[in-house]
Specification:
Elements: H1 6-33, H2 41-53, H3 60-68
Helix pairs in contact: 2-3
Length: 83
């Protein structure tokens, strides 16, 4: 299967992207109107993700996913010892 051309992708997904960007802008406006949340790590992550979107990288989705992911923990499945 041949990948879509850049212009075809833009034509197909422009309105969806526009909607999601407007949603993020509205959320940030509500945070500001509510007095802000200085030094909240979640807001820092959102701002870092927005900066990532502005790069010319071709793996932005991966970079944003890693930004919001927890570090790998090899012991995540093991039960915590009691006592």
């Amino acid at each position: 299967m041949t990948p879509l051309t850049g212009i075809r992708v833009l034509e197909q997904y422009f309105l969806e992207a526009r909607c999601k960007i407007l949603d993020v802008a509205a959320i940030l406006d509500r945070i500001d109107r509510g007095g802000g949340v200085p030094d909240d790590p979640r807001l820092v992550q959102i701002k870092q993700a927005i900066q990532t979107l502005l790069t010319g990288s071709n793996n932005r989705a991966e970079q944003v996913q890693l930004l919001f992911s927890l570090p790998y923990d090899a012991n995540w499945e093991r039960p915590t010892p009691k006592g």
